[in-house]
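Dissemination and training. As part of the outreach component of the grant, students in the summer workshop were shown how a complex can be specified as a set of sequence lines and then modelled as a single object. The example used during the hands-on session is reproduced here so that future cohorts can follow it. Participants entered these lines:
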Amino acid sequence: MFQSYTIKDIAKALGLSTSTVSRALNGSYEIGSETKKLVLEYAEKVNYRPNPIALSLKEQKSHSIGVVVCEVANSYFSQAINGIESIAYNSGYHVIITQTHESAAREAANVQHLLSRHVDGLLVSLSAETTDITPYQYLHEKGFPIVFFDRIAPEINTHKVIANNYQGAFEATELLIQSGYTRIAHLTSSDNLLISRDRLNGFTAALAKHHIAFIPDYVKHCNRGGMVLEEVEAAIRELFSQPNRPEAIFIAGDKLTTTFIAGIKKLGMKIPDDIAVVGFTNSNVAELFDPPLTVVRQPAFQIGQTATELLIKTIESKRPIYEYKTEQLATELILRNSAPQLRPH
Amino acid sequence: MFQSYTIKDIAKALGLSTSTVSRALNGSYEIGSETKKLVLEYAEKVNYRPNPIALSLKEQKSHSIGVVVCEVANSYFSQAINGIESIAYNSGYHVIITQTHESAAREAANVQHLLSRHVDGLLVSLSAETTDITPYQYLHEKGFPIVFFDRIAPEINTHKVIANNYQGAFEATELLIQSGYTRIAHLTSSDNLLISRDRLNGFTAALAKHHIAFIPDYVKHCNRGGMVLEEVEAAIRELFSQPNRPEAIFIAGDKLTTTFIAGIKKLGMKIPDDIAVVGFTNSNVAELFDPPLTVVRQPAFQIGQTATELLIKTIESKRPIYEYKTEQLATELILRNSAPQLRPH
DNA sequence: TTGAAAGCGCTAACAT
DNA sequence: ATGTTAGCGCTTTCAA
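and obtained this result:
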């Protein structure tokens, strides 16, 4: 097929040994400057590229990192992947992306697949369905580098990178309260996820601060994270069939937010007249929505970058690491029209 | 770090030679059934996984394919990548994704990078800036497998997968005409891209069919493909400053469509009152826009799948291939409110 | 039916 | 300063 030059080819062409060529190419000191120059020039001429596979075999490293996310076609994750790729690329790693589609079984299969491909480390954002994290625990204890981002496993003591979900949720809820709303619902995904619990905590804390009673029936969980419209529609119906129906809602998920809006639209209701909305989303087109969406936006790109930096640092560390950190990045509240700052009558 | 069992470990544990173990694992015939069973059971027990790197080195194949696209965080490409991954995964290939951000220099660097990684083949969608396709021509002539999708290089005789851009553009334009519009503009990206030319042709053909004069000033090119708002705003201004300003527009790009709408909004105009819009986009949230967008949607997932199938077939073909095909998949016109079917007043 | 050995591209310890 | 050799994990001739 498509064959490139090897060290052997160069050695033969120049009448040298492979090790001399290798040394010249790697800038070793124990080599004559003329030989070095000769080799370097020839290598340049024939456009020599070291074979990364041979290097991997030698070094026992694949120079690849595995990524586990729920969905690529999701604005948050596509931006995070962008951040991941940017760092990985510059550090000479390539990235293998796998999708769980929010299924725990799929997630386990993906991790297996990545391990069998001998990735050097794992960047993981848990699926909504995942409860059993013992495989990760096991890998981590064996010294295998894992960094969690966004949907992290709190029980595992390794590097983690997240947005400040508590604070983001708090600000979103407080915005609604300060705009005059008191009957505020909360739509979130699986309770398995720490991000869901953090956001719920931010939500309740804001209510408490402003002396608004917390109503458990105002909180709905969609365990498929907005992947299926029906689940969200059912939640909407339950919310609206209550005696004191909510006037505003804080939604704690990217896909969940867009699916909720689609559901509201389908049921013939209007935002913000029927319900004011603040959602967690990283969609680049949220301002084009009807109405333009008030959102909590996460620094997805930076989260991807930071997680990758930490992972590569762990992979390349000479000595075992015992000190792990949890990086928490600030969210941004973007005011638009789905949550009017002055509640209409 | 994290070490898995090798054939050598198994051989030692069982008192066999590595070749015997290898044969057992690969279901060779020249092996005793008891030995085979013994090996298989032990391998199962210790959860043996062949080292793909060693295999790659042996077979001179990396089992990876390189992907060149302009942007991952673009609904069309994220869906196409989904299709690519689904096929690649099932065929034992992994996928390395690179982004050009519409820069020809970046594209060249990415191809170099992928080649140095010894990918077995390339899946390419050209950047808007690319004019020099000789590197691809060269690789192709050397027998290196390349499949183009979406933004193809017509000059190169290899497999190609595209949507029926001519037909999609024709239908979109005809919809506007049949709704009562006659002053129809066209916004498209770089003329370098065949898809731009195809869509322009579909546009003009629809005008011609309905005896509407083609006005060159109604056609605007944005060479950055909607990546920069300013470029699109300039095009909007030029369009609207004409004596007979257009009443409708057909937009031939994903990012271009959303950026155009953002631009219109920023300039304080209304869709469809100031201008009716039909755009090429695969956004999953186009129906949530204000107004819900009438769109031409491409089968991005299938395009990704088909391209990958063709590529893997080419890679795994024993004999050189001389017959190449261009697969053309139908687009879908989705009627919503940005292009009312009865033109107002 | 099984084993020994070579080789894929590269590096590094060990000669010279 | 340069060459020889072994070895990373695996397959595959060649020999037995």
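Chain A touches chain B through 52 residues (CB under 8 Å). Students were then asked to discuss how this feature might be tested experimentally.
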